Amino acid sequence: MTDIPITLPSTSVATPSGSDHALLTLTNIESAYGPVKAIRGVSLEVKKGQIVTLLGSNGAGKTTLLKTISGIMDPVRGSIEFANEDITGVESSDIVKKGISHVPEGREVFPLLTVYENLMMGAYTRKDRDGVARDLEQAYRYFPILKERESQAAGLLSGGQQQMLAIARALLADPQMILMDEPSLGLSPKLTKEIFAIIRMINRDSGRSILLVEQNARIALQTADFGYIMENGRIVMQDTCARLMQKDDIQEFYLGIKQEGVRAERRWKKKKTWR
Ligand SMILES: Nc1ncnc2c1ncn2[C@@H]1O[C@H](COP(=O)(O)OP(=O)(O)OP(=O)(O)O)[C@@H](O)[C@H]1O
Ligand SMILES: [Mg+2]
After folding, report:
1. Ligand 1 center to residue 214 CA distance, Å?
2. Is 58 in the pocket of ligand 1 (CB under 6 A)?
3. Ligand nearest to the CA of 58
4. DSSP for residue 245
5. Distance (Å, whole) CA 117 – CA 119
6. Of 50, 138, 197, 208, which sits most exposed with the smallest number of CB within 10 A?
7. What is the model's pLDDT at position 253?
8. 75 and 184 co-located in one domain
9. In this structure, are 77 and 190 located in the same domain?
10. Sheet holding 100-103, edge to edge
11. What CATH number does the domain containing 230 carry?
């Protein structure tokens, strides 16, 4: 048993299941804020129709990685392929057109615009009016409260409703893939469950792939098919969520399951030293 998360040798690295080709492939991505390297050589993939989760402690680089995929930041090195096309360094508005929507950390809805106007911002790259109308109706089916509040300023919504709005806005771009950054942040356990039930529905109904960054590891591992664990800008572990949930390190650090006895205490100290 290994006590600390380590990078697995390439021969034993599990990859997301499914026989089809990856929809999104990151190869050796490095991203930086000026001199500060935040992502240090990340490779990962998401297959069509999959939910993949990315877990990691504060500052691990999860948000930076999502920003790099959605074109808000350009990587310093490495490549990003989406739907068999190299999208490395492509502008964020063009990334949306290619089929990737980003639900940012902290929602970032436009507080002074109405709910409806916020949703239409999600569709700003589209010209197919019928398609937009259809997707608006679908978004309202997932989140009926948004229809009730469609004329209200988004800033007046509760945190949970703003999260719903951010997800619905992403759907209005009709994406093949949705990047979600901590959708449960600041929400009650009950609301988190509701939002995750809808995330699963969105995935199942339309086969949209989802790359899910989450602080709530338990619900993320229960929701996703495959998971990557990130520490200090690197992937340190990757496996199916079913297998990740069985690993001692994941249970201890991410699921809060304490291992009793002296051995557990020793292992803990060892990890503390390592960190
Ligand atoms: N705008 C910025 N300028 C400089 N450094 C930044 C900036 N944003 C993030 N960083 C640094 O980059 C690293 C990765 O940050 P990032 O926000 O991607 O982490 P995260 O995994 O999303 O963390 P959290 O769980 O807190 O959201 C951290 O060391 C952080 O301090
Ligand atoms: Mg973050």
Report:
1. 15
2. yes
3. 1
4. H
5. 5
6. 197
7. 81
8. yes
9. yes
10. 100-103, 177-181, 209-213, 51-56, 226-231, 234-240
11. 3.40.50.300
Residues 213 and 166 in one domain: no
Which domain covers residue 117, as residue numbers?
Answer: 109-174
For atom 7 of ligand 1, the residue with the nearest CA is 33
| Residue 61 to residue 16: CA distance in whole angstroms | 21
Nearest residue by C-alpha to atom 24 in ligand 1: 58
The atom number, within ligand 1, closest to the CA of 67 reads: 18
Answer whether 166 contacts ligand 1 (Cβ < 6 A).
Answer: no
* 61 CB near ligand 1 (under 6 Å): yes
Q: Where are the alpha helices (DSSP H) in 176-228?
A: 189-206, 217-223
Helix axes 189-206, 159-171, angle to 10 degrees: 10
Sign of CA dihedral 128, 129, 133, 136: positive
Q: 241 and 210 in one domain?
A: yes
33 lines ligand 1 (CB under 6 A): yes
Last residue of a domain, one of 132, 154, 174: 174
Q: Which ligand is nearest to the CA of 59?
A: 1
Domain end marker among 174, 201, 229: 174
73 lines ligand 1 (CB under 6 A): no
pLDDT at 5 over 90: no
Q: Which tokens is 54 given? A: 């990315």
Query: What distance in angstroms lies between residue 133's CA and the mean position of ligand 2's atoms?
Result: 32
Q: Is the CB of 35 under 6 A from ligand 1?
A: no
**Per the domain annotation, does 14 fall within a domain?**
no
Count structural domains, the chain.
2
Arithmetic mean of pLDDT, 234-254: 91
Query: Are 44 and 94 within one domain?
Result: yes
- The answer to whether the predicted template modeling score (pTM) of the entire model surpasses 0.85 is yes
From CA 173, how far away is CA 141, in angstroms rounded? 16
Predicted confidence (pLDDT) per residue in 154-208, tens digit = 999 999 999 999 999 999 999 999 999 999 998 999 999 999 999 999 999 999 9
